[in-house]
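[job 4471] stage=fold_predict status=RUNNING
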Amino acid sequence: MNGVVVASSWSGGKDSCLALYKALQQGYQVKYLLHFISKESKRSCFHGIESRFMRMQADSLGITLIQKEVTADMAEYEKEFKAAVTELKKDGIKGLVCGDIYLLEHQNWIERVCRELKVDAIEPLWERPTEGIIDEFVGLGFEAVIVSAKADLFGEDFIGRRIDQNFIAGIDNLKKKNICPCGENGEFHSFVVDGPIFKESIQITKSKPVLKDGFWRHWFLDIQECKTVKKQ
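[job 4471] inference complete, writing C-alpha cells
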C-alpha cells in the first residue's frame, strides 16, 4: 500500500496517534488529520481540548489539520462525518486511518460508512491486546497526559497523569476494576504531547482539573496554556 494517500481520524489521544504512526510505518501517505469538535463547546469531542492545542499537535507532526464541528445527535453526526470525508476525497484521499481496538459496534459503523463513501477503513490497532498497545506506545517514546475520565471510576488525582512506565505498572489495578487499560470503553481519554513523529514536544504550562456533569460526570483537564519545545 506504499504511497496511498489517506487521512487519519484524529482525536489527539494515544490510540489515534499510534494508529497514525503505524499507518506511516506501513507506507501510507497521511495528508490530513480529520478532527471533530463539538458545536456546543467548540472543543474536542470527549477529550475537551481547545482547537488551538490540537493545531499545535498537527504543526508538530507536520500534517494539515482539518477541523469540523459536529452535533451530538448520531444521525446528524453521520451526515457531518460523511460530508467531511467526501470533501477530502476530492483532494485524493483513498482511505481513513482509525484507532479502534475492539469495540465491534463502532468498527462496524466505520466499515459501513467508509464502504458507502468508497474509501478504505484502515485499522492498525484492531484486535490487538490492549496492554501491548500501551507497552508499544510508551516503548516507542510517545508521551500522553490523561485529560478526561469518568468521575464514577476515577478521582481528581487521575487527571493530568502521564501515560508512562508508572502507568503501565498500575495496569493490573485498572483490570481489577474492569477498566480497559486503553480506556476503549470511554473510561478515560488522553492528549499526546510528544513522540518519535513529533518535531517539537508540547509542554502544558497552565491547567486545572474541572468536574462537569452531563450524561456522564467527567473530570476534565482544562488546559489553558501550552508551549512547544524544540527537540534535540
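[job 4471] summary: The first strand starts at residue 5 and ends at 9.
[job 4471] exit 0
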